[in-house]
């Protein structure tokens, strides 16, 4: 029966799976078995509202019918082609991206994961500038391959051993807890001025690039004030450095705009996409300008991967972009975010635990504090809320050690599912608030 089957699977995981996981409680279940839209279902048949969008890859909804149809077609025609020759789906995806991204970002190549794309982006920046040093804000997450990990500062470095010495952190625009104890806008982006003193101090010759998320998701839903990204771009260009925007979580509609940098009126030198670009399968992209592509190709760079132009993956990419455009995912993200914020704002009037509500579109964060004046982080409370909501059938992510809750409903979520999620959240907040 189901108890025995679940027990046997979890015992097998204990014995055969790698145990270094973000959430070691995974070994006590549940075991997920199916998913559709905004709901994932475990082996026992319990449904969960997935406000973590399958850790962000299912932001267009789990098993979107359009993605399934595209994959099905690839299954019937060609799963894998020659990595050194073009195939129909690969070209289609490059065209879709080239048409969707702002000029002059017309050239794309593909990878299989987020880290993979960032690794390539940093390689392009280093070849183009001839420089080595790369920088990113101290709450960044860019992946766990060598160069991507070297600019990942939002945890997950422990146990990974030594890192390249040519990567450094900048001071992130974490306005709720400004590292420089200033406030916006009177600060005049002092974090960027100090950061670039550090860039200059830590560069040997020509620094290569800054890589940044437009909104720091894994690091705690930290949303830079308007103008920060544009100023960052200026400071990079003054030094001959490139600006790489990692839009893997934040692009393709999630923030209520097509790309995470749209609000800033700028175009980065290189943009990476991943996560919901594949609608649930592993594909990522690196897009850049003709000028940059020309120079790196001229320098002799070739990139061949066994799987990154697989028709299966590229077909999912094409379908995802079609969903974003034709279903107007940016508009859905704005509507979902607005409803979430209405609930959260009302809850903040009832619960002092809520210190800050932030984010854009359907990526919304709540920072919990024990005291609104001292802003002492409520780590234990946040972890308890995350656990109890999960048990009650609502999944979201808990960041910064417990003090930030991140809500990301897939674009398939209905407003009544948002209401239902917030009802669960309110009940659990009540329980945890009275217990502490
Ligand atoms: N960049 C960002 C902004 C991410 O959030 C992530 C994954 N959380 C990555 C890169 C790494 O992607 P992957 O795990 O697919 O390598």
TrEMBL record:
Give the Gene Ontology MF terms in alphabetical order. Answer: transaminase activity
> The organism sits in which domain of life?
Bacteria
Sequence intervals crossing the membrane? none
InterPro entries xrefs: Aminotrans_3, PyrdxlP-dep_Trfase, PyrdxlP-dep_Trfase_major, PyrdxlP-dep_Trfase_small
- Pfam families, alphabetically? Aminotran_3
UniProt entry keywords in alphabetical sequence: Aminotransferase, Pyridoxal phosphate, Transferase
Similarity section: Belongs to the class-III pyridoxal-phosphate-dependent aminotransferase family.
What PANTHER family is this protein classified in?
A: ALANINE--GLYOXYLATE AMINOTRANSFERASE 2-LIKE, PTHR45688
What this protein is called in its record is Aspartate aminotransferase family protein
